[in-house]
Amino acid sequence: MQLARKKELAAKVLKVGKNRIVFAEGRLKEIKEAISRMDIMDLHKSGAILIREVSGRKKIVGRKHRRRTGKIKKQVNNRKAEYVIITRKLRAFVRGAFRTGKITAVEKQEIRKQIRARKFRSKRQLKEAIESN
């Protein structure tokens, strides 16, 4: 007796998977005659259609995260990298200004000291300082 369609209908009505539906052997004729969703619900209540328990691995409660080697995220300090970038840029600009004759050797040395002391935050500030002198 082919009851695959009845099994699909029962699975849909009872909101479980097809593999969990089990028909009682003695009441297959009743199940075959069932047409509507209500018929399936009545057969389930009377015990003609059974639902298997869920098989397989049960959900395991996860452990809380452990902070160990390799999991520690350190805040990276980029201060030195930023200093190197701005210093190289400003020194290159000062070198060019010296070569073109905009500043003297003494001024160049003073400006380099100021660059090292982080007086200028940008190339624009350096240009303004050179123009004002």
What is shown here, in short?
The chain has 133 residues and is mainly alpha-helical. The chain has six helices and two strands. 53% of the residues lie in helices and 5% in strands.
Your description of this structure?
With 133 residues, the chain is mainly alpha-helical. The protein has 2 domains: 4-51, 50s Ribosomal Protein L19e, Chain O, domain 1, CATH 1.10.1650; 79-132. Helix content is 53%, strand content 5%. It has 6 helices and 2 strands; from the N terminus they run αβααβααα. A two-stranded antiparallel sheet has the order 1-2. The longest helix is centred in the last third of the chain and has 22 residues, at 79-100. The radius of gyration is 41 Å and the shape is rod-shaped.
Structural class: mainly alpha
So how many helices? Answer: 6
* SS strand fraction: under 5%
Query: What coarse outline follows from CA principal-axis ratios?
Result: rod-shaped
User: Which percent range fits the helix content?
Assistant: 40-55%
Rg, rounded, reads 41 Å
Helix/strand order, N-terminal first: HEHHEHHH
Give the biggest sheet. 2 strands, antiparallel
Uncertain segments are none
Measured distance between first and last alpha carbons: 103 Å
Major sheet: order of its strands? Answer: 1-2
Average pLDDT figure: 90
Strands, count: 2
- Number of separate domains: 2
